[in-house]
Write a structure and sequence with these properties.
With 141 residues, the chain is an alpha+beta fold. The chain has helices spanning 4-14, 18-22, 26-41, 47-56, 58-69; strands at 80-81, 91-92, 95-99, 118-121, 129-130, 135-136, 138-139. The strands form 2 sheets. Strands 1, 2, 3, 4 and 7 form a 5-stranded antiparallel beta sheet that branches. The chain has a two-stranded antiparallel ribbon with strand order 5-6.
Length: 141
């Protein structure tokens, strides 16, 4: 899950590249982005809509993916790791490890990150929520 402040930073940082990335669509994307940012400033939760807009066009999507990779996110928007076989460590250098409380092989969402990986919480990040169960991931003990 991307942090709201990172999504807003991506929206600001992509501005100078819109014409190059989106060509004829740049003006329309810019206008939609302005409207969503204005709604956000008024208190609306538009971060997901902003992210959808930034990833709607193939080239802006590639740019956005690279932006988030530079911030330590994986391609699906999570800070994830795949544990190695053997004894599991639940905290390394301030990183807490969480797992989905559901049954991974029975998750209704085919693209759900909880199917194969645990999630590493770094700093004050919010713990993700399982979309199927609508409950927070649980810390591994």
């Amino acid at each position: 899950m991307y942090k709201t402040e990172d999504i807003l930073q991506a929206a600001q940082n992509i501005r100078p590249f819109l014409k190059e990335l989106a060509g004829d669509e740049a003006e329309k994307i810019g206008q939609e982005l302005d409207a969503l940012l204005k709604q956000f400033q008024s208190g609306a939760k538009t971060d997901t809509d902003i992210l959808r807009l930034l990833t709607r066009n193939e080239k802006t999507s590639e740019w956005t993916e690279k932006f988030f990779e530079g911030k330590g996110y994986s391609a699906d928007g999570t800070r994830m790791f795949s544990p190695l076989a053997g004894n599991s460590v639940t905290s390394v250098g301030g990183i807490e490890i969480y797992t989905c409380p559901g049954q991974r092989d029975k998750c209704a969402f085919s693209d759900c990150e909880c199917k194969t990986r645990d999630w590493a919480r770094m700093g004050g990040e919010e713990v993700p929520i399982c979309r199927e169960l609508n409950t927070s991931f649980k810390r591994k003990s």
